[in-house]
From TrEMBL:
One annotated GO molecular function: protein-macromolecule adaptor activity
Protein name, as recorded: Uncharacterized protein
Xref: PANTHER family: REGULATORY-ASSOCIATED PROTEIN OF MTOR
Name of a matching Pfam family: WD40
Biological process, per Gene Ontology: cellular response to amino acid stimulus; cellular response to starvation; positive regulation of cell growth; regulation of autophagy; TOR signaling
Membrane-spanning ranges: none
Organism of derivation: Rotaria magnacalcarata
GO cellular component: cytoplasm; TORC1 complex
SMART domains: WD40 (SM00320)
Family per record: Belongs to the WD repeat RAPTOR family.
Amino acid sequence: MPCIFACSIEWNAWDMALDLCLKQLPSVLRQTDSGVREPVYEPSSFFADQLTAFSVWLGENSLLTTTLEREHLKQPEQLPIVLQVLLSQSHRQRALDLLARFLDIGTWAVHLALSVGIFPYVLRLLQATSDDLRPYLVFIWAKILAVDRACQIDIIREKGHEYFISTLTDARSSNGVRALAAFNLTCLVDNYTRGQDELLSVMPRVLDILNTPTTFLYETSALFLWCTLFLGQAWRLNGNACEKAVLIRAPDTLQTLLATHDSPEVRAACAYALGTYLSSSASDNELSERRTEQSKEVATVLVRSLNDGSPLVRQEVLVALHHFLILFAQTPTSGTNVASNPNRAGNLLNKTVFYKVTEAIQTVASSDPSHEMVQLTEAVLTRSLETLNTTFFQWCCSRFRESNTIVRDLGSGIAQQCGALYSEDEHDCFARSGRYWRNHCIRTNPSRLADFQHMRETMFNSRVSNAIPLVLRLHPYEDYLAVANSNGNLNFYEFDGTPCSKATLKVGAVGSIIDTLDFINAHDRTLICVGTDTGAIRIFDESTQRLISSWIALYDHQTQLHPSHHRSAAKPTANTSISTAPVKFSVDWNQQLCRIHASSSNIDYVALWDVERERCLYTMDAGTSGGVHCLLSDSNGYCAAGMGDGTVRCFDTRSRESAVHIIPSPTPLNRHSSIVTLKFDGNDRLISISNMGQLRRWEIRTGTSTELAVPQTSQHISSADVHSTGNVLALTTANALQLKTCYGDLLFDIKHSKFSQVSCLSFHQYRQLLAVGFKDGSLSMFTGKTNSSSL
């Protein structure tokens, strides 16, 4: 027999409430005796005091960060009373506010609230008409439905879904609140046929929202995400919903969003919804001609999105195409290979679409830089009729089972009305403040020209074993450098040559060559951006060395070609000329604009990528000038490209539609010359260095150039770099390392035969440090006089 819990605290609370009521009895009796018909009664403060006590409890416990801390929380004594207060009109809004904050603690709080009987109270409140309660109610129901889907039966039976529909379609509500309403409606149709049938009429209204033009990415992305997922769940395994979707042209809207929307999550949701549409069609025995044609159109659009900049989008697109292959393939024996059996396509489909989809998937298997994508592609091609499940929808829903949803996901919704604040971890706060102050000191003490006049060389004791250093970068704020070698690995060294504790990072695929290396967010938590000669970009977390994102940067959306299909370039031999030099991939990372410019020596355009949106904004035609050999951009939106014929192209990328060509295409300066490096010199001027030693100053506004009086060398320059603040350039020839000013004056010249073996060099962004890599695997650091003590 279960033990009886102690009730003394509850009885004491009710005794106090009774005492407060009886305290007013003498005053009420005196007023009655004096002839007052309606005695003045002062409402009891009991419920207000209980809400205050509950608010204090939330303030002490709602910011616990670990799951273990939340699971060991003591149940708040005021929670049952708060539920009773929900029926009191005078305290209802405050009670809903506190209840929303309580549920935002996480799954533990939701289960506790359900166990004490919250369900009938909040279900009854869905009949309320007050607009002030909408943000609280939709949020509370979002937390409940994220944990317990069984509630959808009662909500549909009691017509509670009409409350969410009215909130979603109310343009006066904030986008955050409307997104919550869309999430609730999505939960109501998730694997629930009656819910799908009841909410079938909502699909046109959702399409109206998705067709509304908007430029506010952050305010509308959550709303568009859950509207799209609603469509995907509404027609999942529901033939009637699919037929209506075709009539109202819902797949067409999703195809447009998949190709144009700025949010990667929205694009992934579009691919997911189109995949559920195709899988629902595959479950039907017979398809109408309209749905057959619609499915072919969907597949064609999905193929183009296989080269999206977001791995999340590409995975959902691949799963959707898998449903397309199942839809139009006859049932073969288990384990049949799709690629080797294209003739099994259905009679209603032109087999050219089937071939196109299969070929596109095979191309992904051979070129995609994401290992997960390659594995998924192999599963699609070798196990065509086995079901491939995607967890994207569950991943999106899992956010509402976490804590602090108010602050993280609802910037314009309930968070502002509740006055929610984000409390950063104390340790992280102090660490970030320390980094910012250190970075400020480094930036405000840049290197001077005089600091480079006396450089001292320090040879590293460690060598890059059995590999050639190809690219190296010095971290602008931390005391280490990253070295990319010919084995496709990244090694890390401190400035004194000591190997860092960081493990060797495997970057490129087998046979690929690392051409570019950059630090992203170096001022805070560093990411490493690596580019290979295949046109692939990979971004790694520096601390965990985990792959964050990867994509093919030089995929031409107009010609549907990868870099390998562009103008060919032979591998170098002892007798090859410059025209047969190996392909060089060029990447420029712009920290201020969060953009990447990418090009290659075997193509004639520059691709502009928005890294935050993970999509290509547009490509810029550079003309037939021997390909692009180096790139540079600034915070004003200018992008300069050094060409293989010694000329420079400059573009103004501030336009969202297309770039403006500033510097035209002049006559090639030297057919044997190509631009090695570029640097903005302020006042709309640009400095270029060619592989023949030409130093030119370009006027961006006029497009004219002037060659500086610098003696040209008959020897090719193997490597060159320009310091960002010191107005100093370094270059290596067959027998010397030279440091010059940006005006051509020689600072010093070190002659030695070892410089014929230089493979790469790089300046520190702020300090007077120059790192040099040699083909024998050795590394050297040249330091100025103010840095000598630090090495």
